[in-house]
Amino acid sequence: MLNWIVTFFILAVVAAFFGFTGLAGTFAEIAKFIAVIFVVLFIASLVYRMITGRSANPPL
């Protein structure tokens, strides 16, 4: 997920550099949305680990 955030951020910077402001804004919004989802899932996993004492890794 962090890779996607960095990718969209770089795409937003490149698009802004070339003058595609609408596209740059879209890429920035996508990166912010994915970052929020990442933070929420990270906090949820921390709370789960604190409550149960074990990680939330599903079996493969």
UniProtKB/TrEMBL annotation:
InterPro entries: DUF1328. The chain crosses the membrane at residues 6-26, 33-51. The keyword Transmembrane helix applies. It comes from the Bacteria. Keywords: Cell membrane, Membrane, Transmembrane, Transmembrane helix. GO terms for cellular component: plasma membrane. The keyword Phosphoprotein does not apply. Belongs to the UPF0391 family. This is UPF0391 membrane protein ABI_29530. It comes from Asticcacaulis biprosthecium C19.
